[in-house]
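Give me the fold.
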Amino acid sequence: MSLKKRTALLTLAGALALALVAPAVHADTEKSESPGKPSRPIVIGHRGAAGYLPEHTLESYALAVELGADYIEPDLVATKDGALIARHEPNIINTTDVADHPEFASRKRTVMLDGVPDTGFFVSDFTLAEIKTIHAKQAFAERPQQFNGKFEIATFEEVIALAKRKSQETGRTIGIYPETKHPTYHQAIGLPLEKRLIDALAKAGWNHRGAPVFIQSFEQSNLKQLRKMTPLPLIQLIDADDVNADGSLAFNAPFDRPYDWTASSDPTLTARTFAYLVTDAGLKEVATYADGIGPWKRYIVTTLAAGLPGPGEAGNILAAPTDVIARAHKAGLLVHTWTFRNEQRRLASDYAGNPVNEYLQFYRLGIDGVFSDFADTAVAARVLFDLETNPNGSACLTGKFNSPAQRAACESGH
C-alpha cells in the first residue's frame, strides 16, 4: 500500500481531504489582490502536521501535504553560521533532543528573549552541521511520542525543495508560509533574518508576486523592511497572552505588543497593545505595508468562563463573533487565523467535542485561511462547508459533472 493510501486511512477526515483539494494557489493569488473575494479558505499546515509528528521536520511537512494542506509553515531562526532552519523558537530545549547530547551540555544558558529571561539551548550557538546531529521531538505530551529522535531539523532550503517536489508528485501547487521569528532578537545578535529569507526565495525563483508564498511576522518594522525587499504578500500576525474570564483578551508581556514597539521606546508605540492592530486605524495602517492580518482566533471568536466540566477550554462557552473579519476585508486585508487543534481541552463546549464544528464556524464567518495542527480535519471541514455553500460542491466532490462549465468551476476551485 502506498504512503498516500496509508495516510488517507488515518481518519475519515483524511480521506475527504484527499478527495477534494482544489488547486489553491491560483485562487489565492487572486485573493491576495482582492481580499474578501469569495473563494475557498486556504489550509496552512501549522509547523507541518504537528498534531501527528514532531513539528518543523520534513516528515511533518510532507504529512501535512498528504493530508491536504495548501501551504506548509516553517518558522525561521538562524544558526551561528547564518543558515535558516525551521524551529518554533530560537530556544530548542523543548522541541529537540539537544539536552541528551553531552557534547553540547556546556551551551545551556539564559538569554533575554523579547525582554524575558529564557533558559535553554539557542540555535545561534550552533553551526548548521551541529544542528544536523540534533533531532526533533514532540512538544505536546498528549501527542504521539514514538517518533522522538527520529527526524532531522530541516533547513529553509529543504522545506522549499520539499514543497516543489510535492507539487510535482501531487499535481497541485503546495505553497510555503514562512514566519520570521523574533526578528529584533536576531538583529541584536548579528543574524538578521530578512535578507537571508529573501535571498533563499530568490534563489528558488519565488521572490515574485504570484509565487506560492506568504511571509508572516509578529513584528511591524520587520514587515516594513520586507515590503521594500519583496512583492510577496505579507501578513501581520496579532497576538495576545490569554483570555480573561469575561472574554476580554489579556495583554501580558511579552505577548502585549510587537516587541519592536517595546524596544523602540517610542511612547506612542509602547502605549499600544496588539489590539490596536484590529482597530479601524490599525487595519488602515497595516494595509500600507501588508496584505493581510493573522490574528489569534480569539480576536474573532472569544470564550467566556462558564465552569462547565471538562479540561481547559471545554469548560468555557463561546461569545458572539466580533466584526474583525468584515472590517479587515473592508480595509482590503486578508484574514488568516490560528491555531486550530483537535484535542478536547482546546475546544469550547459549544463545539460538542468535535473540532469540525470550530472550523465550520470560522469558514461561515468568511475567514480566508486557517493554521491547523491537523490539516486533515481542516480540509474535511472545508469539504462540508463546500457542500453547504457551493452549488457545485457535490459535483466537485464526486466528479459527476452536469456540464463543462460545472467541471471548469470545480477545477478552478470555485
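The CA atoms of residues 113 and 260 lie 12 Å apart.
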